[in-house]
Amino acid sequence: MASPAYNGSCLCGSVSFTVVSEPSAVLACYCVHCSKGAGGLGQVIAKMAESDVNIINGHDKIARCVLNDTSSGAPKEKFFCSSCGSTLWTVPAGVKGKFLMVRATLLDNWYVHFLLSRRLPKFTR
Ligand SMILES: [Zn+2]
Ligand SMILES: [Zn+2]
Predict the structure, then answer these.
(1) Of the chain's two ends, which shows fewer C-beta atoms within 10 Å, N or C?
(2) Share of the chain above pLDDT 70, in %
């Protein structure tokens, strides 16, 4: 059995998860949704296959909101921890059922994986 590629958790630790594959893309996004959602400049996102993301703890803490003011016009779902407010991942309509746009900064040692040694994020806005 393959060991997890990544372990992740929200700020308060209520929600934890593993991802058992590498992201198909890593990007840094500075759009209005990402900067407001992060309370900062933007977010670093790892595009992960939904089937490879396993929630370990905190299913009952995961809340969802739907954003309709998207560039495509199709709704985007945002999932977050109801205790600490950390965004966990978003699901744009175009990838629903296939990918989760996981907040890379929730993954342990994300900066080692995505900034220092592997690949630089593609920048978008
Ligand atoms: Zn939390
Ligand atoms: Zn964005």
Answers:
(1) N
(2) 90
